[in-house]
């Protein structure tokens, strides 16, 4: 349909085995995503694009370790290993991705003191990336999301998209998650799926597209 678009969320080497913040099995999604790209006429992509010393890096907080959580002015922030450094090869879209149908690339997290998971807003949930306006001007209303990681950047993108009035489908086998433990004994993967399902996000396999 003319209103459909595929969103590639942070499919970058920095999030894959051998990268600075590897998501287990993250590289396995590349061929699946390329198959999906062949089925869509339109696509956009996002990239984590951090300056060195970004406030979300554990290295910027003496005494802190990766995956610690701290309070920031915009809320709770998980501290990450240094990753997605702007201009580095590992911050590029994975070189094996067929980019011929990618019509827009949104770079996020470039503000030194503000992290960004969602394709639509920085983590203060107010500062826009501009993606919403681009999608609306182009007439897209149904978003199909894939990428890394399911429980962070994909999930936050899906949540914001639904709240902005888009219809959202996550293509599960074209995503991989981190799965950090949560205080209730579950993981961020379980929490994200429950939250998104309640919001009306659909989860399907690539064979259903």
Task: Describe this structure as you would to a colleague.
It is a single chain. The protein is α/β, with parallel strands linked by helices and 209 residues long. The protein has one domain: Isochorismatase-like (Rossmann fold). Helices cover 21% and strands 22% of the residues. The strands form two sheets. The protein has a six-stranded parallel β-sheet with strand order 5-2-1-6-7-8. Strands 3-4 form a two-stranded antiparallel ribbon. Helix 3 packs parallel to helix 4. It is globular. The N and C termini lie close together (12 Å). The relative contact order is 0.19.
Brief write-up:
The chain has 209 residues and is α/β, with parallel strands linked by helices. The protein is built from four helices and eight strands.
| pLDDT < 50 runs, ≥5 residues | none
Order of helices and strands: EHEEEEHEHEHE
How far apart are the first and last residues' alpha carbons, in Å? 12 Å
The rounded Rg comes to: 16 Å
Top keywords for this entry?
209 residues; alpha/beta; Rossmann fold; 6-stranded parallel sheet; two-stranded antiparallel ribbon; 4 helices; 21% helix; globular
């Amino acid at each position: 349909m003319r209103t459909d678009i595929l969103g590639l969320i942070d499919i970058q080497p920095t999030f894959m085995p051998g990268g600075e913040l590897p998501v287990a099995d993250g590289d396995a999604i590349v061929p699946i995503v390329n198959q999906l790209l062949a089925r869509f006429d339109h696509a956009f992509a996002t990239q984590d694009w951090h300056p060195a010393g970004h406030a979300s890096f554990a290295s910027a907080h003496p005494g802190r370790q990766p995956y610690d959580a701290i309070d920031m002015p915009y809320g709770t922030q998980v501290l990450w290993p240094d990753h997605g450094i702007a201009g580095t090869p590992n911050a590029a879209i994975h070189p094996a991705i067929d980019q011929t149908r990618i019509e827009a690339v949104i770079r996020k997290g470039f503000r030194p003191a503000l992290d960004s998971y969602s394709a639509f807003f920085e983590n203060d949930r107010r500062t826009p990336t501009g993606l919403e306006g681009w999608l609306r001007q182009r007439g897209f209303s149904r978003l199909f999301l894939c990428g890394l990681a399911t429980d962070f950047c994909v999930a936050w993108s899906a949540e914001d998209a639904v709240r902005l009035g888009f219809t959202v489908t996550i293509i599960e086998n074209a995503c991989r998650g981190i799965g950090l433990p949560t205080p209730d004994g579950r993981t961020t993967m379980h929490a994200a799926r429950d939250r998104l399902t309640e919001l009306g996000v659909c989860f399907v396999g690539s064979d259903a597209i």
